[in-house]
Please model this.
Amino acid sequence: MNVCKNLNDNIKHLQNSFTDCGDIVSRKLFIGENNNIKIYITYIDMLVDRQIIEEKLISPLMFRIKQLPPDFNNIDDDLFNTLLNNGFATADLKTSTSLTEIELGMMSGDTAIFIDGYDIAVLTATKSWPNRGIPTAQSEVVVQGSKEAFSEVFRFNTMLIRRRIRDTNLKLIQTKVGTRSSTDIGIMYMDDIVRKETLNSIIKKIDSINIDAIFDVGYIEQFIEEDWKSPFPQLQVTERPDKVASSILEGRIAIIVDNTPFVLIAPAPLNVFFQASEDYYQRFHIVNFIRFLRYTGGIIAVTLPGFYLAIALYHPSMITLDLVYKISSSRSMVPFPAILELVFMDLAFELLREAGIRLPGAVGNTIGIVGGLIIGQSAVEAGLVSPIVLIVVALTGIASFSIPSISLVRGLRLSKYFVIFSSAFLGLIGFWLSVLTILIHLCTLKTFGIPYLFPFVSSGVDGHTDVKDSLFRFPLFMMKKRPFFASNKQKIRLGGSK
Model:
């Protein structure tokens, strides 16, 4: 429905739309020399800054407009432009003829102003909802580097990125998704670096989303990922602005969703999930050692429990006789099969991990550490599990904590059970078959046209440039070219641009 010239019709429509909405604030003003100009101002409480409304809108309208000549009437052709140019002490305003657009603007924190006799209204930006400011990173903590993290406010998040990239080529495409929530979605990229085919693919997928509401980046991730059946993440989720800024400069694309403190980055091959912001703030010697530990931790987190079962149940001859005696003696009093013993202990560890996450910080840490010690020791003393299983489960859990990305850890945790059950029924044959199946699955995955295992596969298409920042990181002065994500016209990032 469009705005009517009759002010009362507009007021009636808004009152019907916002029936039983006690947070709607409205006021009718009479301005001008003879108080012959009727204006209606309305907004939603707590979504706006009242000081802006009083000082930048109402005050100028009440006092500046009194200087208008008395022969102005409320149907004069120049009156609307005069009010628009002289009646508001703010630059961020726009006009609209659609009542639907006006209502949506009000629900986003704008103030609507109607003038009697005109079928067009003014929307002024007065957003100021409660927020927790710029928080500290919680899930991606670093010793050296920025401590800032994204917040739930859309504009805060775009500001944190723009503060780090002061370039006019940094673009922001803004849209709304959700037929009822109308959630602001932002797509940020470097116009001269990004691959246009990747950008167009992401824009097309986001535009095709048709859902009632979007409350978190997880919604967007599930809608635009290429293989929804895979347990492995195909988009990177981060709370760190510095990681997003560096990714954008590599030619990748950031997807920002209002009301969530996380940002999506695409494309996201497996390699990026083992990288942390701190990797580029320290010298390459220690970074290479830490990255090796991360990749080793990822392998251990998936394979160690299954490998233990295969060796203990089917191939004890592959280990020393002393170790065989140790394992058999420790299991002699356990009444359960080895697979039940292992799965029971591993599920107990997973429950403790989840409990630690849900509980408050100090209590959660205590539950995770003390609970693990008490339950583990009690289970061993009661003869429910053997000490070797307790060690295997603990090493597996610790190895998974070494990976910076919680999204990847979740995928590895599910893959671990596939390896466990395959090894329990088929021994080493089942172990290697399950590992091979996971590798084949990873080889078939793609993230927006890029192989998931890049640059470990197909690195030759980019002259093996990306290998310099994979399992090991070369010194910064040797990483002169951008990764494969970037456009071929903007490959050089050190020593100039081409």
Q: What stands out?
A: Confidence is low (pLDDT under 50) at residues 71-76. The radius of gyration is 30 Å.
